Amino acid sequence: MRKKRGFTLVETLVAIFLLVILLVFIFSIFSTTRQGMRLSENHTNAAFLGRKILNEMYSIGFDNMVSISKRTYSLQGVNEGNPWVMNFDYQVDVVTDSIYNDKKTVWVTMEWQEKKGKKHVTLETVFVKLK
Q1: From CA 98, how far away is CA 60, in angstroms rounded?
Q2: Which residue(s) pair with 95 in the sheet?
Q3: Structural domain boundaries, residue 46
Q4: What pLDDT shows up at residue 1?
Q5: Residue 106's beta-bridge partner residues?
Q6: Which range has the top average pLDDT, 28-37, 73-82, 114-123?
Q7: Among 122, 45, 121, which residue's Cα sits nearest to residue 77?
Q8: Residue 2 domain-assigned?
Q9: What's this model's pTM, rounded to 2 decimal places?
Q10: In-domain check, residue 93
């Protein structure tokens, strides 16, 4: 009787095929996760910049708050030794209360380009004139 040792060629090919399928699945998960992290980081940056603009609106005073047409804010940084620049277009809309003129609603819309199209974040707040 002959003892069988090792794997046949078919068994080895099936094992390699299954390993390749598993690796493709794992790498696709990493790719999707990385895209989600990048989108989340861009949302966070847009919200941060929008809040900064709202603070600037607050600092100029209630009577000087006016709408601002579309402008661009560039954010720069370094990630793993690679420099990057992200451009955010923003617009500020200010609407004064039509009855009492003591309240202004301010919207800041931040917009940026992603691979799958434009994304945006809108922040809204209300400023009340102190008497």
Answers
A1: 21
A2: 105
A3: 9-128
A4: 57
A5: 94, 125
A6: 114-123
A7: 45
A8: no
A9: 0.73
A10: yes
Give me the amino acid identity at 62.
F
Amino acid at 97: D
pLDDT digits (tens, 9 = 90+) for 4-26: 777 888 999 999 999 999 999 98
Q: Which residue has the higher pLDDT, 90 or 129?
A: 90
Residue type, 87: N
Assigned domain for 4 exists: no
Give the number of domains in the chain: 1
Q: Please tell me whether residue 34 adopts helix, strand or coil conformation.
A: helix
The per-residue pLDDT for range 25-58, each reduced to its tens digit, is 988 888 888 888 888 988 999 999 999 999 999 9
Residue 122 identity (one-letter amino acid): T
Residue 120 domain-assigned (yes or no): yes
**18: amino acid identity, one letter:** L
**Burial (CB count <10 Å: 0-12, 13-18, 19+), residue 112:** buried
What is the maximum alpha-carbon separation in the chain? 104
Distance CA 3, CA 39 (A): 58
Among 90, 31, 92, CA closest to 64: 92
Burial (Cβ within 10 Å: 0-12, 13-18, ≥19) of residue 92: buried
